[in-house]
Amino acid sequence: MPALLRAYHYGLIVGEPALAGLLAWRRRRGKEDPVRLPERTGRPGKPRPAGPLVWAHGASIGEALSLLGLVERLIRRGFTVLVTSGTRTSAELLARRLPRGALHQFVPLDAPRYLARFLDHWQPDLALVAESELWPNTILALHARGVPLILVNGRMSERSARGWARTPAVARALLSRVALCLAQSREEAERFARLGTPRVETGGNLKFDASPPPADPEALRQLQGVTQGRPVWLAASTHPGEEAAAASVHRALARKHPGLLTLVVPRHPDRGAEVAAQAAATGLRVGRRATGGQPHDKVDLYVADTVGELGLFYRLCPVVFVGGSLARHGGQNPIEPARLGAAILAGPHVRNFAQVYAALERAGGARTVRDGQELTAAVDALLGDPEQGRAMARAGAAAIEAAGGATDRAMAALEPFICQLIIAGRFAS
Which of 63, 131, 243, 361 is catalytic? Predict the structure, then answer.
């Protein structure tokens, strides 16, 4: 093991009290579930079911939800699937959407003793990690126990590759222990291989296969009734600064589009009060879903600060600005609103979904804007010409459908590992 990796490994053994302090600080700030906090130190919250088990990890909402198609397929093959994530919001969503045969736990921090507790209890037969969640001690612990680690939906930007290349010995030591990497694109596959990953394949993006987020039919009917006849658009998964841009769009277009309703879904629902106060300070009439407000005709801007209802608002709005893209966050996932029939708008900072946006733009299903002024013009054009918006939506949905198939390819790539478990007698078929 390179010296830097040894220093990290032993540093987290010595520094375990500091990690306990970090968790306590996060709990006070509402970032950890106090009831389930022991899971973050590897203490299990549930018994391990008998039989073969796959551990599937996605860091946050997008990564975890992208795994659901694989989770369902693995359950059909006879596995129990333990899905871990690291955020409270992802845990709340997964509680609603995990299929029977899957369990959720919070992922332990990357400390050797925490991981030993976790692995001693769950004893996974395979480990799947989504995108770029490559924690050194986790990789080392799985390798030491002979558990194949498979990176699915692997993501490696050129910038990240340059960072890994600064410590080539560390990169080789870790990535050589990855049994299989299913990269999202050929370019990313080449970066993983260049850094020392022994087996790399191009699998595509699992998010193209993800089922659209659900919506309560009664809640949708109620909202459609309340908003009927009003021009409506949505700013979804917004980050700080983007809500102000949405409010500016509303103020600029309210006279031209009488009755205009702007919906804002902040990426982090706990910012709802802050977002509402900012909008109200500019003179807009604001409602909040978390406090029971409704988007009735006396509301200009409605803050939907609840968990698990994006599918409801995607179905309600023909025009969706996808956040994290005017802010320099890298963009949030445009696949879900595109699949549900919305015309997609985004800012220039979409590196997290660059290939998705490229496919959508080639098909005419999405449009990127440089700033708030261009966003205002784009929303104006789509609200003023609904047929243009419908044509964009049809093109986007078709592009998403055409790009699917990553789940099938991933399952085919996993088949040799499943066969090894059958041969080893872990399960019968």
Answer: 63
